[in-house]
Design goal:
Belongs to the eukaryotic ribosomal protein eS8 family. This is 40S ribosomal S8. It is built from seven helices and nine strands. The chain is α+β, with helices and mostly antiparallel strands. The strands form two sheets. It has a five-stranded mixed β-barrel. The protein has a four-stranded mixed β-sheet with strand order 2-3-1-6. The longest helix is centred in the N-terminal third of the chain and has 23 residues. The chain is elongated. About 12% of the residues have low confidence.
Length: 237
Amino acid sequence: MVWSMRAFKPFGQCISNMAANVSRKSCVFSSIFGRLLCEIQPAFNCVSLRQRYPIQCRNLHSSEMMCGGKLKSEWRRKRAPALTRLCLDKPEKYKTRKAFGGGEKTKVTRAKEGSYIWKSQEIEFQTPILDVLYNMAHKDFTSRKIMVRGTVVEVDGEPFKTWYEKQDVHHESNDIKEGEKEPSVDNRILQQLQGGKVLAKVSSRPGQEGKVNGYLLEGQELSEYLELTRTNHNGKL
Protein backbone atom coordinates (compact mmCIF):
# COMPACT_ATOMS: atom_id res chain seq x y z
CA MET A 1 0.00 0.00 0.00
CA VAL A 2 3.04 2.26 0.29
CA TRP A 3 3.55 2.43 -3.44
CA SER A 4 -0.11 3.39 -3.99
CA MET A 5 0.13 6.36 -1.62
CA ARG A 6 3.33 7.50 -3.33
CA ALA A 7 1.59 7.22 -6.67
CA PHE A 8 -1.30 9.39 -5.52
CA LYS A 9 0.86 11.97 -3.73
CA PRO A 10 1.42 14.16 -6.83
CA PHE A 11 -2.32 14.05 -7.51
CA GLY A 12 -3.05 15.20 -3.97
CA GLN A 13 -0.55 18.02 -4.29
CA CYS A 14 -2.17 19.02 -7.57
CA ILE A 15 -5.60 19.12 -5.94
CA SER A 16 -4.24 21.28 -3.11
CA ASN A 17 -2.62 23.73 -5.53
CA MET A 18 -5.76 23.96 -7.63
CA ALA A 19 -7.90 24.64 -4.57
CA ALA A 20 -5.45 27.30 -3.41
CA ASN A 21 -5.61 29.03 -6.79
CA VAL A 22 -9.40 28.95 -6.73
CA SER A 23 -9.37 30.49 -3.24
CA ARG A 24 -7.09 33.29 -4.38
CA LYS A 25 -9.51 34.13 -7.19
CA SER A 26 -12.41 34.38 -4.69
CA CYS A 27 -14.43 31.70 -6.45
CA VAL A 28 -16.80 29.56 -4.44
CA PHE A 29 -16.15 25.84 -4.40
CA SER A 30 -18.82 23.80 -6.12
CA SER A 31 -20.63 21.18 -4.08
CA ILE A 32 -19.04 18.29 -6.00
CA PHE A 33 -15.51 19.65 -5.65
CA GLY A 34 -16.09 20.42 -1.96
CA ARG A 35 -17.20 16.87 -1.23
CA LEU A 36 -14.27 15.44 -3.19
CA LEU A 37 -11.82 17.65 -1.32
CA CYS A 38 -13.27 16.66 2.05
CA GLU A 39 -13.05 12.96 1.21
CA ILE A 40 -9.42 13.04 0.09
CA GLN A 41 -8.31 15.54 2.72
CA PRO A 42 -7.26 12.99 5.41
CA ALA A 43 -5.28 10.94 2.86
CA PHE A 44 -3.38 13.77 1.20
CA ASN A 45 -2.87 16.15 4.15
CA CYS A 46 -4.91 19.06 2.83
CA VAL A 47 -5.31 20.52 6.31
CA SER A 48 -2.73 23.16 5.46
CA LEU A 49 -5.12 24.50 2.81
CA ARG A 50 -7.63 25.65 5.41
CA GLN A 51 -4.89 27.09 7.59
CA ARG A 52 -3.45 29.13 4.73
CA TYR A 53 -6.76 30.21 3.20
CA PRO A 54 -9.51 30.38 5.88
CA ILE A 55 -12.22 31.42 3.42
CA GLN A 56 -15.85 30.40 3.75
CA CYS A 57 -18.24 30.17 0.85
CA ARG A 58 -20.89 32.30 2.55
CA ASN A 59 -18.43 35.18 2.96
CA LEU A 60 -17.75 35.46 -0.78
CA HIS A 61 -20.10 37.21 -3.19
CA SER A 62 -19.15 35.30 -6.29
CA SER A 63 -20.68 32.85 -8.71
CA GLU A 64 -20.65 29.12 -8.07
CA MET A 65 -18.28 28.41 -10.96
CA MET A 66 -15.16 26.66 -9.71
CA CYS A 67 -12.70 27.82 -12.36
CA GLY A 68 -13.92 31.32 -13.11
CA GLY A 69 -17.06 33.18 -14.11
CA LYS A 70 -18.55 36.60 -13.63
CA LEU A 71 -18.56 37.77 -10.03
CA LYS A 72 -21.87 38.69 -8.48
CA SER A 73 -22.57 42.25 -7.44
CA GLU A 74 -22.40 43.23 -3.81
CA TRP A 75 -26.12 44.04 -3.61
CA ARG A 76 -27.05 40.57 -4.92
CA ARG A 77 -25.76 38.84 -1.80
CA LYS A 78 -28.25 37.03 0.38
CA ARG A 79 -28.84 39.19 3.42
CA ALA A 80 -30.16 38.17 6.80
CA PRO A 81 -33.80 39.14 7.52
CA ALA A 82 -34.45 42.26 9.57
CA LEU A 83 -36.52 40.44 12.25
CA THR A 84 -37.95 43.70 13.59
CA ARG A 85 -38.52 43.33 17.32
CA LEU A 86 -40.79 45.24 19.65
CA CYS A 87 -38.50 46.83 22.26
CA LEU A 88 -40.30 49.19 24.62
CA ASP A 89 -37.29 49.79 26.89
CA LYS A 90 -34.70 50.45 24.13
CA PRO A 91 -34.41 53.13 21.44
CA GLU A 92 -35.36 52.35 17.88
CA LYS A 93 -32.59 51.06 15.63
CA TYR A 94 -32.33 51.59 11.87
CA LYS A 95 -29.92 50.30 9.23
CA THR A 96 -29.41 51.58 5.70
CA ARG A 97 -27.94 49.68 2.78
CA LYS A 98 -27.38 50.18 -0.91
CA ALA A 99 -30.17 49.08 -3.22
CA PHE A 100 -30.42 48.42 -6.95
CA GLY A 101 -29.99 51.52 -9.09
CA GLY A 102 -27.89 53.46 -6.60
CA GLY A 103 -30.73 53.99 -4.12
CA GLU A 104 -30.87 53.15 -0.44
CA LYS A 105 -33.13 50.93 1.63
CA THR A 106 -33.77 51.29 5.32
CA LYS A 107 -34.66 48.45 7.66
CA VAL A 108 -35.66 48.79 11.28
CA THR A 109 -34.45 46.13 13.72
CA ARG A 110 -36.00 47.63 16.87
CA ALA A 111 -39.29 49.53 16.85
CA LYS A 112 -41.81 50.76 19.40
CA GLU A 113 -44.25 53.01 17.49
CA GLY A 114 -45.85 53.46 14.11
CA SER A 115 -48.46 55.35 12.10
CA TYR A 116 -51.89 53.66 11.99
CA ILE A 117 -55.00 54.54 10.00
CA TRP A 118 -58.65 54.30 11.02
CA LYS A 119 -60.07 53.64 7.55
CA SER A 120 -63.76 54.15 8.27
CA GLN A 121 -63.07 57.57 9.83
CA GLU A 122 -60.21 58.49 7.45
CA ILE A 123 -57.79 59.55 10.18
CA GLU A 124 -54.20 58.62 10.97
CA PHE A 125 -52.18 58.94 14.17
CA GLN A 126 -48.64 58.14 15.31
CA THR A 127 -49.15 55.81 18.27
CA PRO A 128 -46.97 53.45 20.34
CA ILE A 129 -47.11 49.69 19.81
CA LEU A 130 -47.92 47.84 23.02
CA ASP A 131 -47.77 44.14 22.15
CA VAL A 132 -47.58 41.55 19.36
CA LEU A 133 -50.63 39.27 19.38
CA TYR A 134 -50.42 37.13 16.25
CA ASN A 135 -47.91 36.52 13.48
CA MET A 136 -48.71 34.24 10.56
CA ALA A 137 -45.15 34.21 9.19
CA HIS A 138 -43.74 31.90 11.88
CA LYS A 139 -45.08 30.32 15.04
CA ASP A 140 -42.16 31.59 17.15
CA PHE A 141 -42.38 35.21 15.99
CA THR A 142 -45.22 35.98 18.40
CA SER A 143 -43.29 34.98 21.51
CA ARG A 144 -40.15 36.73 20.22
CA LYS A 145 -42.14 39.94 19.50
CA ILE A 146 -41.07 40.04 15.85
CA MET A 147 -43.16 42.15 13.47
CA VAL A 148 -43.50 41.64 9.72
CA ARG A 149 -46.17 42.60 7.21
CA GLY A 150 -49.49 41.07 8.25
CA THR A 151 -48.71 40.91 11.98
CA VAL A 152 -51.57 41.70 14.37
CA VAL A 153 -50.41 44.12 17.05
CA GLU A 154 -51.96 45.99 19.94
CA VAL A 155 -51.53 49.77 19.77
CA ASP A 156 -52.34 52.61 22.13
CA GLY A 157 -55.88 53.86 21.50
CA GLU A 158 -55.67 57.19 23.34
CA PRO A 159 -55.16 59.35 20.20
CA PHE A 160 -58.13 57.71 18.48
CA LYS A 161 -60.26 57.92 21.63
CA THR A 162 -59.55 61.62 22.10
CA TRP A 163 -60.37 62.36 18.48
CA TYR A 164 -63.61 60.34 18.57
CA GLU A 165 -64.82 62.05 21.73
CA LYS A 166 -64.31 65.45 20.11
CA GLN A 167 -66.13 64.32 16.98
CA ASP A 168 -68.98 62.89 19.06
CA VAL A 169 -69.47 66.19 20.87
CA HIS A 170 -69.37 68.02 17.54
CA HIS A 171 -72.10 65.78 16.08
CA GLU A 172 -74.30 66.27 19.13
CA SER A 173 -74.01 70.06 18.97
CA ASN A 174 -74.65 70.28 15.20
CA ASP A 175 -77.70 68.64 13.69
CA ILE A 176 -77.06 66.29 10.76
CA LYS A 177 -78.41 67.67 7.50
CA GLU A 178 -80.90 65.78 5.39
CA GLY A 179 -79.31 63.26 3.04
CA GLU A 180 -76.16 62.94 5.15
CA LYS A 181 -75.40 59.73 7.00
CA GLU A 182 -73.59 59.59 10.28
CA PRO A 183 -70.35 57.60 9.89
CA SER A 184 -70.82 54.11 11.29
CA VAL A 185 -68.38 52.86 13.92
CA ASP A 186 -67.90 49.23 14.92
CA ASN A 187 -69.04 48.70 18.51
CA ARG A 188 -66.10 46.39 19.14
CA ILE A 189 -63.69 49.21 18.30
CA LEU A 190 -65.52 51.48 20.76
CA GLN A 191 -65.12 48.82 23.44
CA GLN A 192 -61.42 48.62 22.67
CA LEU A 193 -61.12 52.40 22.85
CA GLN A 194 -62.66 52.36 26.31
CA GLY A 195 -59.90 49.99 27.41
CA GLY A 196 -57.21 52.14 25.81
CA LYS A 197 -55.92 49.41 23.45
CA VAL A 198 -56.86 48.79 19.82
CA LEU A 199 -56.10 45.88 17.50
CA ALA A 200 -54.23 46.80 14.32
CA LYS A 201 -52.50 45.08 11.43
CA VAL A 202 -49.06 45.94 10.05
CA SER A 203 -49.29 46.74 6.33
CA SER A 204 -45.77 48.06 5.69
CA ARG A 205 -42.53 46.10 5.28
CA PRO A 206 -40.22 46.92 8.20
CA GLY A 207 -37.23 45.24 6.57
CA GLN A 208 -37.61 47.20 3.31
CA GLU A 209 -39.24 50.51 4.27
CA GLY A 210 -37.95 50.99 7.80
CA LYS A 211 -41.45 51.69 9.16
CA VAL A 212 -44.01 49.68 11.12
CA ASN A 213 -47.22 51.28 9.83
CA GLY A 214 -50.66 49.76 9.47
CA TYR A 215 -54.40 50.16 10.00
CA LEU A 216 -57.03 49.34 12.62
CA LEU A 217 -58.95 46.10 12.21
CA GLU A 218 -62.67 46.46 11.46
CA GLY A 219 -65.60 44.37 10.34
CA GLN A 220 -65.06 40.82 9.12
CA GLU A 221 -61.28 41.11 9.30
CA LEU A 222 -61.54 42.01 12.98
CA SER A 223 -63.73 38.96 13.63
CA GLU A 224 -61.27 36.64 11.90
CA TYR A 225 -58.25 37.93 13.77
CA LEU A 226 -60.08 37.93 17.11
CA GLU A 227 -60.67 34.22 16.63
CA LEU A 228 -57.02 33.66 15.73
CA THR A 229 -55.75 35.54 18.77
CA ARG A 230 -58.10 33.59 21.04
CA THR A 231 -56.66 30.31 19.81
CA ASN A 232 -53.08 31.60 20.11
CA HIS A 233 -50.90 30.19 22.88
CA ASN A 234 -50.50 33.50 24.73
CA GLY A 235 -54.25 33.69 25.46
CA LYS A 236 -54.39 37.45 25.86
CA LEU A 237 -57.82 37.83 24.28
